[in-house]
Records
---
Amino acid sequence: MSSGANATTIDVPETRAEAKGKAPLIAAPIVATTKATPHPNAGWKKGLAIFDFLLRLAAIAATLAAATTMGTTDETLPFFTQFFQFQASFDDLPAFMFFVVATAIASGYLALSLPFSLVSIFRPHAQGIRLLLIISDTVMLALTTAGAASATAIVYLAHNGDSSANWIAICQQFTDFCQSVSGAVVASFIAVVIFMLLVMMSALALRKH
Amino acid sequence: MSSGANATTIDVPETRAEAKGKAPLIAAPIVATTKATPHPNAGWKKGLAIFDFLLRLAAIAATLAAATTMGTTDETLPFFTQFFQFQASFDDLPAFMFFVVATAIASGYLALSLPFSLVSIFRPHAQGIRLLLIISDTVMLALTTAGAASATAIVYLAHNGDSSANWIAICQQFTDFCQSVSGAVVASFIAVVIFMLLVMMSALALRKH
């Protein structure tokens, strides 16, 4: 790791507060020195913040694709009996409903977090914003993972069925339905991976200041 | 938040490195001052680390309970036909198998992480350990959530069935099976909440040093 480079970091407001509290007489020259010297790892932090912003854009694309693909999935089979038509829609299955709601919330959250991510590009040492982002990212990671995993369990069942519980595989009839649902699940797992990366990167950025 | 108290934090090794790099002539008195004064927020950090350790113990209990409850679930109905007996076991359903594996892995990881958590009680400012813990906790949060959510989707189906996919509710027959499976799912969600808390607390602990 780059802890060697980080060891020379100086956080200006903190140094000032610390110096005021402890050694007021030598406070002024220290502050002057730190202000004159550019941050040694500001570039590294800025790179991390820019990557964070780009990852958020990718995650918006992934969650939006997942939510809309799942939310518009609807297949009516071309044959029907006297009493009912065979139709499969995402809102027949509560797990798919939850998936749409969870990925839509994640997508909205990501859009709202973009300005905060932008601020941390220009102020790489603002710890409050980083902390806010890492906490809400953790919650959203859990939400997106829950949506993706529950939908996966149902998609697996739709593909393979389960003989012991007497649940039949419906994908033999509803091929298009199963295909788009599987696509949505894959997109949501991409979003899960991105959320994990976002949390880890925020942790790295919080490490030194 | 306690940012007012944190603003006076001084990290001894970093202050020394920083002082050496920037202003060697006034480095010695500063280090002497900081060494004489105890850490203002060392107690707060230590409390956080102790709470982290206790939460890990609770999470071990929750994941162990979830894994063993699910892993020993097996119900044979008291009636049978000529050809087969009605039996429900967790390993009939892949989602339940995944649940057992995921919670068992989380449980093992938590046991392995205890020594690291202990070290960070005695050395609240060791950032490398915190960073290691937050990154692996994030991965485990995703794993445990995935296991819990996929099992929930199947448990919901077992309780309610799904008319459009023609999947019947099996809980009317397998009442004991469904009860213990539901208990395991609840325990795993407790573990998920604890993992989220662990990640957030590590983020807080990384914030200032």
Note: Residues 1-37 of chain B have pLDDT under 50 and may be disordered.
---
Amino acid sequence: MSGQAPARFDAVTVNSVQDLSLVDGGTRRMIERRSALLGPSYRLQYSRPVHPVRAKGTRLWDASGEELLDAYNNVPCVGHANERVVRAMSDQLSMINTNTRYLQDEVVAYAEALLSTFHPALNRAMFVCTGSEANDLAVRVARQVTGQNGIIASQFAYHGNTSLVSSFSPAGGPGTILDRDVRLVPAPDSYRMRGIDLGEWFAAQVQAQIDDLASRGVGLAAFIVDGVFSTDGIHPADDGVLRRAAEVVRRAGGLFILDEVQSGFGRTGDHLWGYERFGILPDLVTLGKPMANGLPVAGVVGQWDLFEDFGARVPYFNTFGGGNACIAAAHEVLNIVQDSGVLSNVATQGRRLRGEMERILSRAGRATDVRGAGLYIGVEFSRSDPALTPDPQVTGQVVDGMREEGVLISAAGPNGNVLKIRPPLVFDDADADRFLSSFERVVRRVGV
Amino acid sequence: MSGQAPARFDAVTVNSVQDLSLVDGGTRRMIERRSALLGPSYRLQYSRPVHPVRAKGTRLWDASGEELLDAYNNVPCVGHANERVVRAMSDQLSMINTNTRYLQDEVVAYAEALLSTFHPALNRAMFVCTGSEANDLAVRVARQVTGQNGIIASQFAYHGNTSLVSSFSPAGGPGTILDRDVRLVPAPDSYRMRGIDLGEWFAAQVQAQIDDLASRGVGLAAFIVDGVFSTDGIHPADDGVLRRAAEVVRRAGGLFILDEVQSGFGRTGDHLWGYERFGILPDLVTLGKPMANGLPVAGVVGQWDLFEDFGARVPYFNTFGGGNACIAAAHEVLNIVQDSGVLSNVATQGRRLRGEMERILSRAGRATDVRGAGLYIGVEFSRSDPALTPDPQVTGQVVDGMREEGVLISAAGPNGNVLKIRPPLVFDDADADRFLSSFERVVRRVGV
């Protein structure tokens, strides 16, 4: 049943708290068993959690046999259980799977293919297993090469779960301890700040934090930003909004780290990388989630002198990072994303979804903002007052309502009032049709 | 050719620097291409690096067709390209591979099976992707639940590569920055400290560092130790050496974290877990490397109240940690290690290798110490002076000499003078025969 107001949100992924009265006895026992084995860090999505046992393309099937449309998972970017990726993985795993202390054809070939998609100045790659490790390494590199310690991130950023990375990930929740050399800037929110030069405003925010660090004797190591400001509420930061900020960061001697764990691999449409949309050249780019369609592969791409400087001092080794089998899967993902019309599909479907949702919502006459880039879409719900007071309750009702329609989405933002719509990149016309008809019904039912 | 003295060691894995005059033109070009793409953090093992293109069981085949015996890689614990693990992985990957925001049968079943192998007090598991992430999380948990910041590790510890973990991993090399709240204790070295009560001595070392932290107002969050002191030079710490230290740690309000990334999953023979050999009950145990035979799976096992306390405050989420496909592989590894005489094989082969190497070396009349537990074996080479001055040169010659015999081993320890012998757990009689005859020839040739 939808219409159930979520009692509370957590921040990493905004989740409704389970309502155990909604689930059958078997599911309840599984939730209890899981909780007893894994502990309370493990949260579940939706008032009525999903228990998928099979998946293919953009569809998942629940244990009950119900078919679900996946409009949320960015990780299986070329579709759940993609046969080409499965084959690349299992063929390589049957052949050999070792580590980078040996010469390996796969990691060299993949690094070459991956780097050929970047600006020529971004010509070195290091491989790790998770986006958290990638961001941790990028900031280690930044601190080592700049000799400075300060980090600036966005107000409600989430960059991962290592101790360092969580120290500049306020969205990790109230238990997250920020580092004393971390400063935060508000996201460039085009919905709530209309009519001002956002680029100039944002650069001034960054400069103010650089000045504050400097007043305490702390230099800037890096400014790190997620390419879609996803946990901040999904702000695509179009029109060169970040360009001036990048200049300010460089002038302070810091590095510009673009976290493309969310925005990379074609997610934002047309381009493979978010930085192309921004019109900036980052010093370091971090990659993750969709990189191997769900296998643990992540990386840092950067300019050679940074890695030269860091690597000469630190013999970084990652046992699994760069391993043949996961790299073979990653290479196949890159081939698919580049070869088969995926990028143009992302742009087309993204435009259609945003346009149609805007029409559906405007008919409902409610204060909303539909925004995003490619297939990373946010829909913000607020009350109809002049302050545009966030409305997480309606947002949660739409998330749970869509789930009852068999369509998976979630919510984001510091107030949990922004729908997060982020399907696999192979989301097609039929998927969009189904999504939109469900969305229209839910909007009508919830009374948005 | 062997007999080439390594010019320099690095610390994470002690490596000889490549001698490009030893490799053919194709290999040289590959090394150069790799270096241009990945940068200098990426080191290679052996004066003449290995370029394996196929592997099965305990054997690898080089691009030139040469067969190599693997006496080094602990990660493919049930053998390279193990068919049961490949099948478990690819079957699951074809079916579904998502994350722990959904109910998943695989992670619950595996957590149950894994925890049933631990002491009943160690009854919660969290899953991550790498040993680094596991140790990072364990120390985050320790700091959060104790409210204290101090960390004690061993003098030449290596626990991984995140910023936090490298801050208590001095073996990460001179570029590694230790945290100001980190203190180090020497390893319990049974070779250089004969005739003293090592347990009492070691506890006093730990107490001294606790006192030093306290004198600066820093309480102890955790004492973390690798279950075989591998980078410290492989000290098996038998006979309850750690028991008194554990008491001292608890009295100071700190947690005892046992890093079983190296020592877990039967590596030390007879038992599945190193702590059973130590006769202690750790608060947290971290797992990694062999957990899924080379796929990125790692974890933290601990007592429920610690995870309860941490999880209530921190909604930790790891995108790939606990994913169905890698977990299916891990579960199959656990089945194989438990079911098929692997543990007794480890004990038997380990005893035989140690005994035979001792005999071979004692005939050579050189000051050496052969030690270890199960199939984690160290052979220390020193000069024949009263100080037992470490002899990294001879050690490197033996490593490269074995490589020329087609047998892979490496070296460890702060001085790089301890052979590290750590084959897959399925190393059998024929493997041991081949290993020992090569070892005997190399010892004779090098003139140990």
Note: Residues 1-15 of chain A have pLDDT under 50 and may be disordered.
---
Amino acid sequence: MGSQIPIADWRTLAESKRSSVFAKIPKEWLLPSSQTARYTETSSLSVLDVPRTCGILTETELEITENYDATDLVNLMAEGKLKSVRVVTAFCKRAAVAQQCVSCLTEIMFDEAMARARECDEYLEREGKVLGPLHGLPISLKDSFNVKGVQATLGYTSFITNPPSATNSVLVDVLYSLGAVFYCKTNLPQTMMTADSHNNIFGRTLNPHNLSLTAGGSTGGEGALLAMKGSVMGVATDVAGSNRIPSICCGGSSFKPTAGRVPFAGGVAVGRLGTPSPIPVVIGPCGRSVRDHKLFMNSVIAAQPWLLDENTLHIPWRTLDAPPNKPLRFGLIRGCKQRPLHPPIARALHNTATQLKTHGHTIVPLDDGDKIPSIYSTALLAWKFFKLDPQKTPFKYIQASGEPPIPSLQTCTFSELKDWSATLDELWDMNVAKAKICHAYHSLMREERLDAIVLPGYQATAPRHDSFGVPIYTVLANLLNYPSGVLTVGRARRCEDREFAREGVGLEPPYEPEICEGLPTAVQVMGKNMMDEELMEILSVVEGLVGGRDGK
Amino acid sequence: MGSQIPIADWRTLAESKRSSVFAKIPKEWLLPSSQTARYTETSSLSVLDVPRTCGILTETELEITENYDATDLVNLMAEGKLKSVRVVTAFCKRAAVAQQCVSCLTEIMFDEAMARARECDEYLEREGKVLGPLHGLPISLKDSFNVKGVQATLGYTSFITNPPSATNSVLVDVLYSLGAVFYCKTNLPQTMMTADSHNNIFGRTLNPHNLSLTAGGSTGGEGALLAMKGSVMGVATDVAGSNRIPSICCGGSSFKPTAGRVPFAGGVAVGRLGTPSPIPVVIGPCGRSVRDHKLFMNSVIAAQPWLLDENTLHIPWRTLDAPPNKPLRFGLIRGCKQRPLHPPIARALHNTATQLKTHGHTIVPLDDGDKIPSIYSTALLAWKFFKLDPQKTPFKYIQASGEPPIPSLQTCTFSELKDWSATLDELWDMNVAKAKICHAYHSLMREERLDAIVLPGYQATAPRHDSFGVPIYTVLANLLNYPSGVLTVGRARRCEDREFAREGVGLEPPYEPEICEGLPTAVQVMGKNMMDEELMEILSVVEGLVGGRDGK
């Protein structure tokens, strides 16, 4: 992959690829260029209301895209109250508008989607039953999924000369078999190892709340598209927080399952295959509601994906009482000293814990004393695992076209690892260090009889472009291989956040109250390994108390 | 671990350890030294009848140890028809006799076992119910398990100076909670990486069928003890065949589950912790019947071991229809060209396949053409993973006492790897190569709709000491992480085996028909990843047709 391209040509190649995708947006869905010229990465505009004000979507289309979650939509379609063609049209239009505001898409598959939607509608009419539990539902995919006949460049200019995908990712096959409709792929960072979804082909995805802020990454295209309500269910990979950070930055919620529960096979690798890293990449859903995540997990696993992917665990999705009627026990982590919480996030956590307590649940603070291993050191260890490749393959993929690395690659790393390179000998010790951390959390959860841990997903609301830094709070769940969900639980409000400010504490990135006013604030809820089912119900409880589910 | 010991002292240390264990055998259970003097590694005697002829066991004790499997025994004890004290006494006596014939034990815990057996009996009498599904059952353990208060030297002389274990292995805790009685630990090879259970502390375990043959390894102590009927259920580790090879060499059956189903935590490591090898060590049962393996798996998993060991998968043991009443589809592998089958094993496989076909099952030959990746190359790749440690820790443990390496360490390796040492860079490629092999088998099983694969466990019956070589057929299931069982399906019979001889085929180790006459012949049945439950029922089918369950 990534054949050598004359350096002078990379810009031409990227521009041509970008234009060919843009050309797939129907003319009548285009915003005036005078308007889009204002949507730049230095503008602090919010574009959240553009779909509603631009006149491109009908009132019904606005309703379809705004008023429901995926569970509602599949129910309405299954009952024949809504045609897939109408739903898909609405989301295609809205995604097209979103793309023009925040550069959230890579591949556009509107024509294919409309054909598939018609197929769904005809099937239902003819057979009197749905294709599956996701019948007719438009689903957006991170660019790294393979969809037959469509490219997967991953934002590497050198990948533009690769032929379109010859096969689907296993999950794409599974979702298709369940009735899904694919209509777009979404933007991500060059190398996928930063929280700024920025590359030299598709540009930089902007945060719809404030274009001068990051949309997060590596699935920032999904995050921005979901916030624009140009998608109701997205699918993303996550090895350090990639599926959760965009929800943290743009609002909404996402779910990272335990590894092996959702089939991973058949995607495009962003780096070298065969890593000995013990931190697996996983795939999970992002969207508007916890029940949609459950719909996704339940449906995918019911399709027996282990028959198609040997690395998927042969385990059914267990049915539990939903929601659990016993009081729950939550551990609470209120940050770590190397990355203290910004006031809005401290308040979000405080409010969440308070609401849980008020409703009879127990909160066990875990950040007093040395109950938990250092979150910062744990993330540093994870980063070593991510830097194992002696061949530095992602950089080879960059160099192959002559394109420059994106700026945030410099910021999403530990200064401690500047001169570090892996050895096989140290890898053994790293594995031992990791095992100790996993054991410590496991023992803690057992001894404290915890059902889940509430912790920050990030220390701040969406920061400015290229200033996110290292996602120490999300990568924790990856290293532990614990399922984890992220929920929007409120908004930054300067006047209320103020009392959570702590004097003399240095914050990174800087806290700018005027910038973050009104931005979504998120918490992370981490469950226990393989207990995705239990975590899902716990997330429902948290969502019910503080989540303010979107789309309803 | 393994503090430096003056070289001159290792013999004294080993002798003293050996004597201290031997001293735990009650005087009245000792065989005359004139008799035991004949039980040497160069003798071709069978000692299988010694327990019955030595006069140490009563007729009832002979019956208890010979006539039942573990399922029978726990049922009889639960019904109050048999006391644990009587069962445990009988097995302690028989294990003591076995030890004097074939050197199968390391640690002796007869006193502790008797106390525990009394506790079981008193509990049942007092409470009117059993402690658990393994109530009162004596279970033998490979030396690498930690049992509180008992040493775990693993046959390293340098480990003799370690204090006794301070805690139990997680599985030992689990089995204890289920009612088990521990009465002995069993012998294994220095480094555990050969099929000759031989070390400088406890000597060499001999094959009860013919003392000049290997008992197999690395769990040879279990294999020999089980063949002497000095145990009814043993527990062993397996990373290349360690739990299956002794059953192949000595008779009986064993089960290697999918990794993560039986808790592995808390044992003593034979080498360095933190290996990046993707081939996990697993623990499984060995003994007399498939239903005993099921009893073990079902009971252990019902105890929710994931609460105690974070690396155990949170998955229940699924209940299936037993046995499956549909015809099964079996793949058949009749060896590979680098290690062709000896006539008795070729006949064993042929008979097994024929019986299965006769009873309506389908046999799909997999060894024609290139349907499967080379078994030899697959084993070679596995061996590279086993040789990853740049510090060669097992050899450090040997050198720490000045003891010599055992001879078979030279024989259980690939000449291709003589000068090979691992690099981090190659490890990536090795992982890719492994993934391709896993994918090939997974695709094959799917395309051919196979329920299981019947293949050799080894190319021969038990060979002479130090000539087993590399276990290419068993390590396949470890690399694939497929569950696998081994069953004795007959005996070598020169006159019947003859027709399976192939002219001009070089056999390794050499085929000596007169030596192997009457030895058990085994087949291996490999199931699908995570489908341990299905494999167990399939093994029952094979056992029912050709297995001739022992103990009934």
Note: Chain B has a mean pLDDT of 96.
---
Amino acid sequence: MAQRHMHLGAFMRPVTIHTGSWRWPGAWADANFNFPRLKTLVQRLEAAKFDAFFMADHLALLNMPIEALRRSHTVTSFDPLTLLPALAAVTERIGLIATASTTYNDAYHVARKFASLDHISGGRAGWNLVTTANPDAALNFGHDAHMAHGERYKRAKEFYDVVTGLWDSFADDAFIRDQESGIFWDPARMHVLDHQGEELSVRGPLNVARPVQGWPVIVQAGASEAGRQLGAETAEMIFAAGGRIEDSRAFYADVKGRAAALGRNPDHIKILPGALVVVGDTLGEARAKRAKLDSLVHYESAIGSLSSVLGVDARAFDPDAPLPEIPETENSKSGRERAIRLAEREGLTVRQLAQRLGGYAGNAFVGTPATIADEMQDWLESRACDGFNIMFPNVPDGLDEFCGRVVPELQARGLFRREYEGTTLREHLGLPRPENRFFA
Amino acid sequence: MAQRHMHLGAFMRPVTIHTGSWRWPGAWADANFNFPRLKTLVQRLEAAKFDAFFMADHLALLNMPIEALRRSHTVTSFDPLTLLPALAAVTERIGLIATASTTYNDAYHVARKFASLDHISGGRAGWNLVTTANPDAALNFGHDAHMAHGERYKRAKEFYDVVTGLWDSFADDAFIRDQESGIFWDPARMHVLDHQGEELSVRGPLNVARPVQGWPVIVQAGASEAGRQLGAETAEMIFAAGGRIEDSRAFYADVKGRAAALGRNPDHIKILPGALVVVGDTLGEARAKRAKLDSLVHYESAIGSLSSVLGVDARAFDPDAPLPEIPETENSKSGRERAIRLAEREGLTVRQLAQRLGGYAGNAFVGTPATIADEMQDWLESRACDGFNIMFPNVPDGLDEFCGRVVPELQARGLFRREYEGTTLREHLGLPRPENRFFA
């Protein structure tokens, strides 16, 4: 069997996810509003040959209690479709994935902005299609209430159809630019979409030439039944939740199976779980680093969240003792059991558990470059993933450690590219360029 | 009296306006979709110390007959709010003005994108607030018909109030980022707008820190009664139509008078008419250059437009003879008379008149660097303007001629800066930084 190669995205918000990371000694606390620093970060990711810089988004302040919110460096962030063009201008190869909502946008704007970004970047754009989970966003866009989950997904599918249809407004050869005859483009090579649907009415054509990649790469992250189905139908990259490797294998098989059942080539959906990576010289040093990172999370906010998860008032517990036995309650059983199992497995105190969950509770690889590469290789080779969306515990140090120590280890094992082979995000990911649905 | 200094914007679409310009020998016909070329152009404008790169926009194909449209290099263009961040990343001082519609946008998106651009560019963003004149845009945004003129202006004013209110969501000192205490920002220094108006309902706050300039510079171009009034109330730069110097003086006095009557400092509205500039070694060479440029305009399309303007079928005339006497018709008298006067003044044939109007019919300075500087100086000193939004007959040559020959002439006369003195667009234009309406 040929060696599998992994794909790496850097999941940025636009910097780190972990809520304590900005307090790390030497961390660039202002990086999310400091363009020169973001430029440095993306250039270092490109030097490490990442497939893409992947930017999350929110259309309102994060909906968390004010005590946690005022300690959060992710409370605000640049608009991704404004930041990524700027990053495109200072890089040459790395892909640039922006999150944009199908619930709180016009399809014409979304189609045009991604098409523009794809031209400006020479074919490096990706669209993370989201339906927006934060109900506060509705209030910023003239709605009284958030659209229901099912309706959001119905609109998302129609929105996708319209955006991709608008990208196909012009044949790739429509623009002739014959200075002699004076013909700039050929109207016979233009298609007017004339979409009249349940959610959207958009005439077209788009007033931008077809993107370099045909279509920017379609990315999705939905984990619900509706989200998985939309992903199987339309996604080319999926940001999976991660979690236990056996759960990830099941997710991987499920989504690829759904895609195959729909007649798609399952290799044309790349599944990249999120992974927080903490690097140390020894396993112990890496774990201590993570413990220190978690200790920077505000305890009062964290213990409140833990109380919600457990369904009991955890403020009454001794913070520096192990978690006492927790009675069953009406609360979500899976969340409570995951927390209890985590505390047992790692021997965490109440405080440590609260801060772990308050910092970043998702999938993490904590170890030496070799043990981290072992885990990543196991995930890849056992078909739990096609690569990872890496999250850094802090910047710039955590990013530099991953790029400078883990990437070379992956390269030495033949698991990751040493040089870019293509120039577009599709080429990095091994995805085909879509045919124009209206023109041969 | 102290010497007046002029301000110069480069009005780009995103390159040239004249419909024959892409056919000029050596012209960069593909510049509107070629980022490396646009990067070169903006860097040359910055080297010439322009105040701003000013980008027009359309939200649909231009509504012109297909025979003209298929010969137009301005048929499509990048989204300005996607192109300008990329240009920000490859420049350091020049202002960046993007056109964005108040009719076909969400105020929250517009506020957020301009705030992001202002941060990314270090305070160089400007917003050309338009209500969108092309009725075809409505069909791309789910509307059956274009909003009426009065309603568009009413919405524009409310939209402006919301966007500027969102920019003021955070006090300038709201972001503390105290790594020791873990407090990232101060909720007491945040204002929730909670706007409930006739056209818009937007809660806020914006999830972006206050822009570097407080507010990006507000630009407008409306010439109607409603447009002038909105400009007097809110604009800091006005793109005026130009035309005859005496008309421009009257416009200048009218708008500055309206602003003063509203209690504004008239110096805080800069009026910059558009001007196509064609440079030659002699007056004759410049005129021949312009004639050649006009000759690249498609005659069949141009004669159709001339027929509409004159209210008669101009196809019946000898194209190479002077314009015959034109009877009065029901058509707009002012348009017809302007065309007849132009043909008389410059001794144009029917063909030349048609191609002139089909190419670019607005204000133009055609001559040697010295005669062009004379005209520009006369306009400035007689208070017909505070500077100009320059249009180039072709790129790169027309741009290089202006930057390399006219700018040094203006500098030698003390009319234009030799170096940037400030770093923000407001500083280039001599505009104050707005106070935050919610925080001292």
Note: Chain A has a mean pLDDT of 95.
